[in-house]
Amino acid sequence: MRLVRIGLASVNTTVGAFAANTDRAIRIARDMATDNVTVGVFQEQLIGGYPVEDLIQWQGFVDGQWSHLERFAAATSDHPTLFIVGVAVDFNGLRYNCAAAVAGGSILAVVPKEKLPTYNIFYEGRTFARGIIAGGVDMVHGVPFGDLILECDFGRVAMEVCEDLWSPDGPMGRRAYSGAELVCNVSSSPYRVGVVQTRKELIATRAADHQVTIAYSCQVGANDALIFDGGGYINQNGKPMLDAPRWREGWAAVNVDLDRTARLRTENSTWRADQEDWAQHNDPVPVLPVSSDLLDTAAGRRGLAYPVPASRSFFLPSEEPRQSASSAFCEDILDALAMGVGDYFEKNPFFDVLGIALSGGRDSLLTLLVAHRYASRVRPENPGSLIRAFTMPSQHTSDETFDAAKTICENLGVPLVVVPIAEAYERELAAAETMLGGQDTNPITKQNIQARIRGQRMWNWSNTSKGLFLQTGNMSEKAVGYTTIGGDLEGALGVLANVPKTVVMYLLDYLLDRTGYAGIAKVLAKPAGPELAPNQVGESELMPFPVLDACFHLFAAEKLLPSEVELVVAEMFPELPEQDVRAYVEKFTRMFLSNIYKWVQAPISLHIGNLDLDRERALQLPVVQDKSWTLGGTDAHD
Questions:
Q1: CB 520 within 8 A of CB 632
Q2: Beta-ladder partners of 111
Q3: Domain range list for the chain
Q4: CB within 10 Å: which end of the chain, N or C, has fewer?
Q5: Which residues of 220-292 form beta strands (DSSP E)?
Q6: What 3-state DSSP class applies to 145?
Q7: Pairing of strands 239-244, 220-223
Q8: Could you tell me what percent of the chain has a pLDDT over 90?
Q9: Which residue has the higher pLDDT, 4 or 529?
Q10: Domain 3-302 bears CATH identifier 1.20.1070.10
Q11: 287 contacts 148 by C-beta, under 8 angstroms
Q12: Is domain 326-631 in CATH 3.40.50.300, yes or no?
């Protein structure tokens, strides 16, 4: 047996906080070493934080990271552990996103990232250079830099960075064929709904295809709109060995027998044939021996035990309780949103309290519950003390929604301030009519005046109280412009702005079942509507929310033309008359393309899915466009 103990660390970093990020990593590294960890794997851009975006263009931002990497090495010099950490470096005037190996007080090697994602929310190709170094290996800061493998006393180790794993043509193949047994992937992969299973399957596939042990570690925490769930996986030749806890800073470790990886290679004739073919046409990746003076793990590895199942059976499944798919879905999204709110609040030194305009409707209710979920973790004794809720009733506010807002605040122990807007509304209405030369305002303007008064008052409160004003609108209504610029579209952080309306309602049903709060039940008892005019119901003014979300996904995510959307929506909702389906699709398309100008003005919004309304990071659509392209091949003038 050739036993090693592999640890995975997730650190909640802040972009630019070199010293603090390194200090957090040093504390975890020392704990790992105490636990006899042989190889400790941290995350992508550990020193500088992620995503760095255009900060990487500042020379000082790049150069300043190396001294902290050296400080990490010095602080862990007495530990017989190989640490793999993420860092940015400058080489010949270009910036590289790298994994660095550290042991015995020295930086042993630096390997740059080769695959640079420039799609969806990623923009690495904008500033980073691809890690293909002419000649294979060069030197940076006097350290070997490039495509290489480390030969340690326990086996051969390769390093790579995040996207290198996601590409089937990544560097793992040639490094495995060159003898690498353990591949350490440092990652900062943002959370998206469904990504966990995708990661597990991908890592298992890569480990089996290349007959290696993969140690994958991911960043935890939120920076701006991106949320990272942390955790990580160790998979040996397709066999899961460790699933590290997510949604918390920390580390986990497991013992692995690298002899098993070597043996499985000898047994797998297909892999051997592929390796032989590759070796005939390619030079091997350079191998860098690591001196025993810098890394001698023998003593620590002698006490390691073979990784036996907790069930004490190699044939029977574990008896661990499994979470239902519905519960896992809801808890993941709620954890992500709470972390997004909490880290934005804590990492910005401007805020003292969270503020929410509470209407008594579904969106503001869920925003409040997300904020309370975060507050319950940092102030468990009195979470409500971290939140301020305001309800601003108008002449259209129903007794039911007003009572629902009061009830949920009582349920949660959140202070609620009632500030009516009826008088202010009449004054603003009169002012608008004066500006119009006595002309009556239209009904939409009358609705928007109410929303804008509420938005302005929240900003006024925020300015003096140092409050983080949470914007509460959902993605579906935002997509079709069912929102007010300067009103409910206002806020410093959009909590639900990338959460579809059907998901909002699903989460509230889940939370009602889980908590039994009377305030949630009262909100759900009334049809959803903005209450800016008499008897307003959202689905009556738009369309059924399941249909709206189906149109949104098919048109904006799947990029189908309206005629194609019609066919799928008709299949999904056979109970709807054909003319209704056509009308809904036409209405959605018209409203979506006509209201891009609205949602591009929205605040920074938390990302939890692959379809996001964020012109900077995700769905980049021109505000000015002719809509006739949606007719496909037909003549727009026919």
A1: no
A2: 99
A3: 3-302, 326-631
A4: C
A5: 220-223, 226-229, 232-236, 239-244, 250-257, 287-289
A6: strand
A7: unpaired
A8: 87
A9: 4
A10: no
A11: yes
A12: no
